[in-house]
Amino acid sequence: MSASRRVLVVGSGGREHALAWKLIRDGAEVLVAPGNAGTAAIAENVPVSATDIPGLLKLAQDRGVDLTVVGPEAPLVAGIVDAFTAAGLRIFGPTARAAQLEGSKIFCKQILHRGDVPTAMFQEFRSVAAAREFLEAREDMPVVVKADGLAAGKGVFVCGDRAVALEAIASLGSDPQFAAAAKGILIEEKLDGVEVSVMAITDGRTIVTLPPLQDHKAAYDGDQGPNTGGMGAYCPTPFVDPELLADIEARILVPTVHAMRRAKVPFQGVLYAGLMLTAQGPKVLEFNARFGDPECEALLVRLESSLLDLLDATADRRLETVEPPIWRDGASVTVVMAAEGYPGPVEKGRPIRGLEAAAAIEGVQVFHAATKLVDGAVLCDGGRTLAVTAVGDSLPRAKLLAYTAVKEIRWPGAWCRKDISDKALAFELSAASMDSGTAE
Ligand code: AMP
Ligand code: GLY
Q1: Residue 73 beta carbon below 6 angstroms from any ligand 2 atom
Q2: How far apart (Å, rounded) are the C-alpha atoms in residues 70 and 10?
Q3: Alpha helices, DSSP H only, in 334-421?
Q4: How far apart are CA 348 and CA 369, in angstroms?
Q5: pLDDT, tens digit, for every residue of 145-157?
Q6: 342 contact partners, CB below 8 Å, separation of at least 6
Q7: What is the pLDDT of residues 354-408, one digit of tens each?
Q8: Mutational pocket test of ligand 2: of 15, 235, 288, 334, the residue with most ligand atoms within 8 Å of the beta carbon
C-alpha cells in the first residue's frame, strides 16, 4: 500500500511542488532535492542540486528512499536513472539513452521516422556552414531553425524569412550558450495551427494517456513577445476532443513507444508530445521526457486517483495492472506569476506577500516555481516565480478563481499574462455559434 512510503522528488520548480503535493496526498512521505519555499512548507527539502547525481544517489540510500521521481530533463539526460538502477534503487523516468528523445532533436526525428509518426519535414546539418549554404540556395520562406541538443528552451528560432533564419544560424555558431547544443542543426518546415500538449505515462509497453492541455509559451497576452518556458496552462483543452485524443494516442504516442522499444531504447516515464494541430492533422513539434511545467500543475490538481500508484507501477514495469486514473470533472487553470525582467535576467530576493490569502480561496493551490525561504520570509528567486492554480466546475470558473488568487499576491515588479485559457473560451464560443448556425 501507499502509506508511509518515502519518495524523493528531484527538482525545484512548480512541477516538483505539484508532484510533492500530490504524492503527499497519496500517502507518501516526501523529500525534495533541492526544492523551494513551497515544498519546504509541505515536505522536507534537502540541499542537494538536481544535477548532482552522486549526491542524490547517496541521499536516496542514506534515507531509505523507496522511489525517486525526477522532475527536470537535465538529470535524466545526464543519466540519473541509469545510476540509480545500477545501484538497485527504484526510480521513475527514462534512461539517458531514452531521454535523448528530448535531449537530441535529431534522435527524436529518427524515432519519429521509424514509427511513421507525423512531424514537420526537416533537414539535418553537422555544421553552421552547411546549414547556411542550404538556406542560401533555397527560396525565401518561413522556416524553423533548431539546435540539436538541450539549450534551456532557447535553441529554437521560428523565422519568418531567410534573412532571419541566417541570423539564427549565425547566433547558433557564435553564441557560447549554444556551443554544445548546436553541434547539430535542424532546419524545419514551419507548421501552422494550434499548439497543444499531450502527455502519457508509459512503462515502455503500456501507455496511460493523460488529459490534453494547452500551454502559453509567448511572454505576453495575445501570444506576443519572446518565447518562455510557459506562462500558464489549462486542462482539459477543447482543441483536443476525445476522438482526436484517441487519434493522437494511436498515431503518435503508441508508435513512438513501440519505435523506442524496437530501437532497443525502451522509454519509461512521461512521454510529453508538443503538438501542432495542422490542417493535415496533429504533428509532433517536439517530445519531452518529463512532465511539462506548468502543465504538470494544471494536470495534477485534477487527478483524484493515486499518482503514486501510477509512478510505482511504471518503475516496476507493470503499468497494465493499474486502474485508469480518475480525473475531477470541470477544468483547471494555472497562471504563472513572473518576476520583473523575465524571460531576461531578473531581480531576485524581493519578498512575496499575500500567499496565504491566495491559498485560502476555494479550489486554489499556489505552487512555488522559484522561491526561497529566508528567515521565515518567502522571497522571489527566479523568473517564473509562482504557478497559481485553480480547479473549478467549468473553465471560466477555474480561470476566475486562479486570477482572484493572483490578485492577492504581490511583490515589486510581479506580472502575469491576463489571458490564460481565453483561446479555449473563444474556441468554445465559436463552436457553439457554428452549432446554432447549422441547426437553423
Ligand atoms: P520546441 O522546443 O521544438 O517545441 O520548439 C519551441 C517552440 O517553437 C514550440 O513550442 C513552437 O511554438 C515553436 N515551433 C517549433 N517547431 C516548430 C515548427 N516546425 N513550426 C512552427 N512552430 C514551431
Ligand atoms: N511547458 C513546456 C515544457 O515544459 O516544456
Answers
A1: no
A2: 5
A3: 355-359, 395-408
A4: 13
A5: 988 888 777 788 8
A6: 219, 228, 383, 384
A7: 999 999 999 999 999 999 999 999 999 999 999 999 999 999 999 999 999 999 9
A8: 288
Superfamily name with CATH number, domain 194-424: ATP-grasp fold, B domain (3.30.470.20)
% residues pLDDT > 70 (the chain): 98
Gap from CA of 238 to ligand 1 centroid (Å): 21
**pLDDT for residue 392:** 98
- Taking Cα atoms as reference points, which of 362, 432, 428, 417 lies closest to residue 395? 428
Distances from the Cα of 389 to the Cα of 234, 332, 356, 359, angstroms: 9, 7, 14, 10
Just give the CATH number of 6-96: 3.40.50.20
pTM: predicted TM-score of the whole model, two decimal places: 0.95
Distance 393 CA to ligand 1 centre (A): 32
- Rounded-to-10 torsion of CA 402, 407, 408, 412: 130
* Cα-to-centroid distance, 285 and ligand 1 (Å): 5
pLDDT tens column, 284-296: 999 999 999 999 9
